[in-house]
Specification:
Layout lengths: L1 H21 L4 E11 L8 E2 L5 E11 L3 H11 L16 E8 L2 E7 L9 H14 L6 E6 L2 E2 H9 L3
Parallel strand pairs: 5-6
Antiparallel strand pairs: 1-3, 2-3, 4-5, 6-7
Length: 161
């Protein structure tokens, strides 16, 4: 009887160890997402192309995999206000994957951006890069959309204006 009890306890402790290891570590975290205020705004932030201002907005997010993924997902969800605009949006635009390794963030997006003019190009680029670069563990950022680098994608879009 003691032997059966010992085996059951051993199995239960092994199951407990397995379930604890397989749980995703989740935590709430404060992140900044960056939105655009048009030229002439009273808001302060980083000056970007076309005289616009990049403004940080702090959000609480649930971090499931990594902070970059959570921050970009939050950015994709943000809607415009009277003063702050989000240009990181478009048909079917979604975050496919975001990884962090060796101080490098690799971000893969799928879909298309709504680009209505040449000024939208620096808006999109700055919003994404600043949202990702805020984390001290990130020294280099690579962003891809539909398997093209963000720079190549935006360069092709810019040729249409």
């Amino acid at each position: 009887m003691k032997r059966i009890r010992s085996i059951i306890l051993l199995l239960l402790s092994g199951f407990s160890l397995f379930t604890n290891c397989s749980k995703n570590e989740q935590a709430d975290s404060k992140v900044n997402i960056y939105l655009v205020a048009f030229a002439g705004t009273y808001l302060e932030g980083k000056q970007i192309g076309c005289g616009d201002v990049l403004v940080s907005v702090t959000k609480n997010v649930l971090v499931e995999r990594n902070v970059v993924e959570s921050a970009i997902n939050e950015l994709l969800l943000v809607t415009d206000t009277d003063e702050l605009k989000n240009f990181v949006k478009g048909p079917g635009l979604l975050l496919f994957q975001a990884t962090i390794a060796n101080e490098t963030a690799d971000v893969y997006l799928k879909g298309e951006f709504n680009i209505s003019g040449v000024c939208d190009i620096p808006r999109i680029k700055e919003q994404l890069y600043e949202t990702i670069k805020q984390f001290p563990e990130i020294k280099k950022v690579n962003i891809f959309i539909n398997d093209k680098s963000l720079e190549d994608y935006l360069s092709l879009a810019g040729k249409g204006f």
